[in-house]
Amino acid sequence: MLLEGIRVLDLSRILAGPWATQVLADFGADVIKVERPGAGDDTRGWGPPFLKDADGHDTTESAYYLCANRGKRSVAIDFTLPEGQALIRALAARCQVLVENYKVGGLAKYGLDYASLRALNPALVYCSITGYGQDGPYAQRAGYDAAIQAIGGLMSVTGEPDGTPGGGPQKVGVAATDLMTGMYAATAILAALRHAERSGQGQHIDLALLDTQVAWLANQASNWLVGGVVPDRQGTAHPNIVPYQVMPAADGYFMLAVGNDAQFVRLCGVIGEPQLAADPRYATNAARVAHRTGLVPLLQQRLRTRPAAHWLAALEQVGVPANPVNRIDQVFEDAQVQARGLRIELPHAGGGTVAMVRNPLKFSATPLRYGHAAPVLGEHTEQVMREILSLDDIRLQELRLQGVLGRQR
């Protein structure tokens, strides 16, 4: 496995941090997820839906929690207690990576901040994920995905235009800022591990949801920074490419994605309007962007005359990108999705299996192997305590009686 021998101490909860550590677990790292005894990661209760047991009854494992925690080992430790803090420090001394998403300075009172743990393990890569970063006027604010989508500009370019049916700001349908932050975190951790291997020195990674959101505004930010154009909401349309949006058909909708002038010529042929491609207002993409309000209604009027399946087949035949707008159930019925094996089944400690989406990466020399679904709360507490910290039965029982260690739920 790619990261065999790398041990990650995961103090994160919700989505951004767990998404990052799940990527590392997929790559073969030993990820130890530290959770509060009795409660665990907040997302365990974020349902319904919940995983069903063998009798068809709801378990305590929500679908939300299951999506971001596969392949990890769960230990239930109360590190608000001195003995729990000592256990976390002992684990951190034996790990290469620590990931946390507490408020700025929140772990310092427990002696679990970067400065304290670096003294024990100079090579430790310590990744802190917060809403707004370790400094600045908003540093102490709590960060939530939807709030960051708002302040970071994403909602200003998502949704139908003001003054149209359904107009107004919209959030993206998944927690995109959390997920992108998780991916940036995984990338940063891998880079920092490479540095630590060469130098013997770890470092503190300061990663903010807001920073991530602003960074992945991508071409929309560039439109403003380079062109002085403040982007607005255009529904499914693209600010820099036309026609590139959901189009109506006689029986519904489909996505049309014309990426160059040659594709536009072929589109016009398919819809029986070849003269549009010769019109100076529409002959180039720049001209089409400038005259979109004239062109798009013409295309919509023509496309409404036939069912979506007709247009999809005709456009595929001439190499013009277009796709159906699938519901989630239709996604997993799609022939390409099935051919790529994107749905997997992993064993779960509660019995049976859990259906999941595989990691999208495919490696030719080191294919990913998934051991198990997300752990139940405290599932590996004793295993980790014995294996890594060499605690015996007597000491484990003492810690359980003190409330430091939780039991498997």
What structural category characterises the helix and strand content? alpha/beta
Cα separation of the termini: 30 Å
Beta percentage is 15-25%
Rg, alpha carbons: 25 Å
On the 0 to 100 scale, the average pLDDT is 96
The general outline is: elongated
Strand numbers in spatial order across the main sheet:
5-2-1-6-7-8
Detail the poorly predicted runs: none
**Number of helices, where a helix is a run of at least 4 consecutive DSSP H or I residues:** 17
Helix content: 25-40%
Biggest sheet features: 6 strands, parallel
Please provide the ordered H/E string of secondary-structure elements: EHEEEHEHEHEHHEHHEEHHHHHEHHEEHH
In total, how many beta strands? Answer: 13
Offer a concise description of the structure.
With 409 residues, this protein is of the alpha/beta class. The protein has helices at residues 16-26, 63-66, 82-92, 114-120, 145-151, 176-199, 209-215, 218-227, 261-270, 275-278, 285-290, 292-303, 308-317, 328-333, 335-339, 381-389, 393-401, and strands at 7-10, 30-35, 50-52, 58-62, 73-76, 97-100, 125-130, 203-208, 244-249, 252-257, 322-324, 343-347, 353-357.
Written account of the structure:
With 409 residues, the chain is of the alpha/beta class. The mean pLDDT is 96. The radius of gyration is 25 Å and the shape is elongated. It contains 17 helices and 13 strands. A hairpin with a 5-residue loop joins strand 3 (50-52) and strand 4. The strands form four sheets. The chain has a six-stranded parallel β-sheet with strand order 5-2-1-6-7-8. A three-stranded antiparallel β-sheet has the order 9-10-11, covered by helices on one side. The longest helix is centred in the middle third of the chain and has 24 residues, at 176-199. Helix content is 37%, strand content 15%. The protein has helices spanning 16-26, 63-66, 82-92, 114-120, 145-151, 176-199, 209-215, 218-227, 261-270, 275-278, 285-290, 292-303, 308-317, 328-333, 335-339, 381-389, 393-401; strands spanning 7-10, 30-35, 50-52, 58-62, 73-76, 97-100, 125-130, 203-208, 244-249, 252-257, 322-324, 343-347, 353-357.
